[in-house]
Amino acid sequence: MSTHKTLYIDTEALSTLALVQAGLIAPVTGLMNESEAREVDRTQMYKGVPFPFAFVLAPKGEKNRKVLESLQKGETVYLLNEDKKVGELTVEETFHIDPKQRLYNIYGTSDPSHPGVKNTISRLGEIAVSGPYRVEYPLIEDNINRINQMITRTGAKFVTSMMIAANPLNRAHERMIRQAISDADLLVIFLRKPFTNEGLRYDIRYNALNRFIDNFIPRNKVIIIPFENTYIFAGYNELILDALLAKNYGCHQLVVGKNHGGLGLYYDQNRLNSVFDHCKDIDIHIKTVDEYVYCDTCKTLVSTQTCPHGQHHHVHYHSESIMKLIQSGLMPPPILVRKEVSASILASLFPDRFENLQQMHYSLMPGSGLLEQQSEEQFYLKLVELYQTSSLT
Q1: CATH number of the domain bearing residue 196
Q2: Do 116 and 241 lie in a common domain?
Q3: Per-residue pLDDT tens over the stretch 94-132
Q4: Which of 75, 80, 93, 157 matches a 20 to 30 Å C-alpha distance to 263?
Q5: Which range of residues forms the domain containing residue 39?
Q6: Could you read off the pLDDT of 202-236 as tens digits, one per residue?
Q7: Per-residue exposure over 16-40, b if at least 16 CB sit within 10 Å of its own CB, e if not
Q8: What does the alpha-carbon distance between residue 272 and residue 262 come to, in Å, rounded to a whole number?
Q9: pTM (2 decimals)?
């Protein structure tokens, strides 16, 4: 029977501890003690680099509180996740934090109706512990190895990156991806993998993005990396953390849309300013791209900055509205979402949706006359072709 004290941490905390342990949020490489934490919260700097709030471990729960109150300097405590030992920590000190102030530091608000605040309140305790730690979380090492192997294999000298949710992948995302690879040897797409169940499941988004890249983008130009979107990336300082992560993964540039959450607060008569002043010490180039829309006069995807036609000619790529179509089981128009992507998502989201699928396929679709086995994905693709047949519309 082990006599070691234990702290229970959730997977979100484990993932964040592993990112820091791997040096991916450097110069932060460990948990901050009380004086470091207060200094970072006051200055929003750490070792000469912008860092928006203290990096501390303060797990919630009555068992955790009792253990934290009893810890002595030099003691080793086991870290448990889902009742499995995932690491250990040697105590330097424990100290009280103000959860409300910490929420404000991360999100710019402590209003419980804010989705990020609501999520973090449920997991944030009042006592933090600092000290050297070690955790096991293979996903992070796997990500580092995959990127390094891709750089070695392709000989990439200039690596650019973007962080997207692709919820769902739309034509504007596609344009951003094409633009990003046009001036880089390699594009790393960090596909956000949140710890909530909002939107499409990660595997559905990954498969849809993969379908686009495999079929419509040159091979060896793009790699998709799962990016666990832990609470530290969810606040209004998100861009600073994104930039640090991309740089430490070996990227030279981060491409962001001008509707990126971390940019919204920094507009001054449509001029970006202090966010870039704040990021200049991170040593990565941040490139912003204009919003893309479909113009019904230009008949193509255009930047809002270069199209001469007014708003009333523009179709916007509003992710939440496109998601509502998909969640209702409707196929978005191909000007919004590529038909191969829509078919992949709908077939995953509504498996076995149609009774007698083969009969419907044979009855509705033009074909060779032979009864061939057709998948739901193929059915959706054929359906789009019918929608696009224009002689009777």
Answers
A1: 3.40.50.620
A2: no
A3: 999 999 999 888 888 888 888 778 888 888 999 999 999
A4: 157
A5: 5-135
A6: 999 999 999 999 999 998 999 999 998 887 887 66
A7: bbbbbbbebbeebeebbbbebbeeb
A8: 11
A9: 0.88
